[in-house]
Amino acid sequence: MGIDRGSSRLGIEDVYRAESRRVLATLIRLLGDFDLAEEALQDAFAAAVEHWPVEGTPANPRSWLISTGRFKAIDRLRKTRREVAGEVDVPLELSDTEDYDVVDDRLRLIFTCCHPALNPDAQVAMTLREVCGLTTEQVAAAFLTTAPTLAQRIVRAKSKIKGAKIPYEVPAGSELSERLASVLHVVYLVFNQGYFTRADLATEAIRLGRLIVVLLPEAEAIGLLALMLLHDARRATRTTAAGGGELIPLEEQDRSQWNRAQIQEGVPLVERALTSRGFGPYTLQAAIAALHAEAPTSAATDWPQIVGLYDVLLRADQSAVIELNRAAAVAMRDGPEHGLTLIDAILARGDLEEYHLAHAARADLLRRLGRKSEARDAYGRALALTMEEPERRLIERRLQEL
After folding, report:
1. Mind listing the pLDDT tens digit of every residue in the chain (402 residues)?
2. Which residues contact 23 (CB under 8 A, 6 or more apart)?
3. Where are the domains of the chain?
4. Which residues, other chains included, contact 113 with Cβ-Cβ below 8 Å and sequence gap of 6+?
5. What is the CB neighbour count within 10 angstroms for residue 255?
6. R_g of the chain computed on alpha carbons
7. Residue 289 needs a FRET pair 20 to 30 A away by CA distance; which of 146, 250, 332, 343 works?
């Protein structure tokens, strides 16, 4: 294996940031055990800290780390006389010529962490910890829980993977579509977790989305990446202050501050997904977001086309939340009284009664119609149900204005 002793070699920290998740994914495949692979990863980087400053950075750092980590793991097993039969199938003789550079290992890791046999919270936690490389403390903060509690959740998930013999593989055939939907759902949950105040989580979700599109360019994977990019493009204008402040409604946002690079990346992805076979709800939502992103003002938005897209989306996903969003678009197209009629019908049948945005949307339409007393009551109901501070501050301001 060649060694690069030139001045351009990467530092070990740079290699860790760029390669550690790839190395871990391959070590899990080779060793068949999450914990053993994580120990091997740490051992490999410890060896790198010892050898690279003296010998130079290898020409292929990833292969060096995988090979070293695998040898260290087998050495650890031999020394401890660990019984691995039925648990970890690790060949004790290795080939020096084996190709370790297998990009599919990252995809295998994603599908394993998002396996439907795992609890949904465990799927997100495993993805953030094992695929994204966040620390246990960082993942715990995202879940608003303690690090020991989160660590136990991850331990249980790993035990479930081992005990249920969940295969470390990318599903094939008809199973792929269903399993991919689970993976995309987890990625979108990560994105939404960071929607207001955790930009790092939104960034990780977009990174994951890009990785999935590179490795598995299915229509809905492309659509989800586009959707996240187009939503995240408005991050700087979503609240009055970074990481807090008051929520700024879409129609009041300064569109000159939207991230044009993300929009220019997202819109072609929407077009690519729409021309692919098998697109679904993520792609349709991304198409709606693209229309918002390309409109110079709220008034100039193509509301008829947005309503039409919501019609198609409702046929694909009979969701009361989508129905609510369609009602808001109808209000922009036909007038607030038409949207209000639709929202009242949703609430009358008992749907979204505990959903703060339904009451906030209803209050906003009542405000526009001049029905101030009813608007105050609706805003009060929304405020009682709202958890996010930026949304609370907007509703409180609306109440003061009334």
Report:
1. 444 444 334 588 888 888 888 899 899 888 888 888 989 999 999 999 988 888 888 888 888 999 999 998 888 888 775 444 444 455 444 444 344 445 578 888 888 988 988 888 888 889 888 888 888 888 887 777 888 988 998 999 999 988 888 888 888 877 887 788 889 988 888 888 777 667 778 888 898 899 889 888 899 999 999 999 999 999 888 888 755 588 899 999 999 999 999 999 999 999 999 998 888 999 999 999 999 999 999 989 999 999 999 999 999 888 999 999 999 999 999 999 999 999 999 999 988 999 999 999 999 999 999 999 999 999 999 999 988 888 889 999 999 988
2. 41, 44, 62, 65, 66, 69
3. 3-84, 302-402
4. 123, 126, 127, 130, 131, 186
5. 15
6. 25
7. 343
User: Is residue 108 within 8 Å of residue 169, measured between CB atoms?
Assistant: yes
Q: 58 has which bridge partners?
A: 3
C-alpha span between 24 and 34 (Å, rounded): 9
Helical pair 104-113 and 199-215, crossing angle rounded to 10 deg: 120
| DSSP state letter for 10 | P
Q: CA end-to-end span of the chain, whole Å?
A: 73
d(CA 148, CA 355) in angstroms, rounded, equals 32
Q: Is the pTM of this model over 0.85?
A: no
CB atoms within 10 A of CB 253: 17
Output the furthest CA–CA distance in the chain (Å, rounded). 79
Kindly provide the b/e burial profile for residues 102-120, where b requires at least 16 CB atoms within 10 angstroms of the residue's own CB.
Answer: beebbbbbbbbbbbeebee
Q: 302-402 belongs to which homologous superfamily?
A: Tetratricopeptide repeat domain (1.25.40.10)
Question: What's the distance, CA 216 to chain centroid?
Answer: 16
User: Which residue is listed with tokens 């198609």?
Assistant: 312
